[in-house]
Write a structure and sequence with these properties.
By secondary structure, the protein is an alpha/beta fold. It has ten helices and 15 strands.
């Protein structure tokens, strides 16, 4: 049976999900909601589905199994809660929320409704990232010492909500940094301490446009992350993982690894494909709704990403290493038939 999705938001990321769903046999978009009626009606007309002005209207107009939340981050709690109240599952774009408190309210609402809930974080589903993690798990690289991640390219954010702190929660740190934090946790495990150094603001945005982020994991490993909207980093490699026995490089066009006692780099992947990794993410979500798989991104993962970013902004203020506050997570329970909730 095909999972019936509603798209909440009709902007660029929602249009990417149209392409994503087109490649899945077990998913169908049946409605679109957006506060901009022209945007909602335009995308709905392309898909020949129901258009609505807001999530509540869409929930009342068409039967849904799940919604994909593609609205700005400040609206995520309200949109998700409306879906939970209707017993509808939620896949929410990153960042999950702009504060730990808001994220916890979302988790609590999902738990009360006993419906599946997860955060969309596409880099966990990039084939080369998954293969790199498998290489690390095999022990081939030895003990992991450090990861390095670069998401730096000049982007005009002057007219986008991403640079409006009341809507986005901040600047490049919460925007690109949410991906970076999740990648670091994927390879290093829980993050206990963070340090952020802001670089000169050159875009006149009123939010940080370039930062360096350092993370220290409970495992002892560290992560060094460069984030920028103001300059281009020309390297093809966006992720490197250094171990005592070797190094892995994950790139936009190709990926490879080299063991310490070898001279040659061994290629293992063809790079980054946005639609393909988003499709893998949505396929996992659909399988979880059917009770066939566990959600790859757990509620604990989603909350942790918000916690680390929260600590990063506190570090930005105090100019020093800052502990990540532990937060108890109330996980949605499993239903009687085994469906992940």
């Amino acid at each position: 049976m095909s999972t019936r999705f509603g798209l909440i938001g009709a902007g660029a990321i929602a249009k990417s999900y149209v392409s994503v769903v087109a490649g899945l046999a077990d998913a169908t978009i049946v409605g679109v909601a957006d506060v901009d009626p022209d945007a909602a009606q335009g995308l709905a007309a392309e898909l020949d589905v129901v258009a609505a002005a807001h999530v509540e209207e869409l929930l009342g107009a068409v039967s849904l199994d799940a919604v994909i939340v593609c609205t700005p981050p400040d609206s995520h709690p309200e949109v998700a809660s409306a879906a939970f109240d209707a017993g509808v599952a939620v896949l929410c774009e990153k960042p999950l929320a702009i504060s730990v408190d808001a994220a916890q309210r979302m988790v609590a609402a999902a738990a009360r409704a006993a419906v599946p809930f997860t955060m969309a974080t596409k880099f966990r589903f990039v084939d080369d990232v998954v293969r790199a993690r498998e290489l690390v798990a095999s022990g081939a690289l030895g003990e992991i010492i450090q990861t390095e991640n670069v998401f730096a390219s000049r982007v005009d954010m002057s007219t986008r909500w991403n640079s409006q702190p009341a809507v986005s929660g901040g600047g490049v740190l919460i925007d690109n940094g949410t991906h970076s934090v999740d990648i670091a946790r994927y390879f290093l495990g829980p993050i206990h301490e963070v340090m952020v150094v802001e670089e000169p603001r050159t875009l006149g945005l009123g939010v940080e446009d370039s930062v360096q982020l350092l993370l220290r994991a409970a495992s002892g490993g560290t992560a060094a992350i460069d984030l920028s909207w103001s300059y281009d980093n020309a390297t093809d490699v966006y992720l490197q993982v250094y171990g005592t026995a070797g190094t892995v490089q994950v790139g936009w066009q190709r990926s490879s690894y080299r063991l310490n006692h070898h001279d040659e780099w061994i290629a293992f992947g063809d790079g980054y494909n946005k639609i393909a990794c988003m499709r893998s993410q949505l396929a996992n979500f659909c399988a979880a709704l059917r009770g066939e798989e566990e959600l790859a991104i757990s509620i604990a993962d989603a909350i942790a990403s918000v916690q680390v970013i929260d600590a990063a902004y506190r570090s930005l203020v105090v100019g020093d290493w800052t502990m990540v506050d532990p937060v108890q997570v109330v996980s949605p329970p499993a239903s009687a038939d085994g469906t992940v909730a």
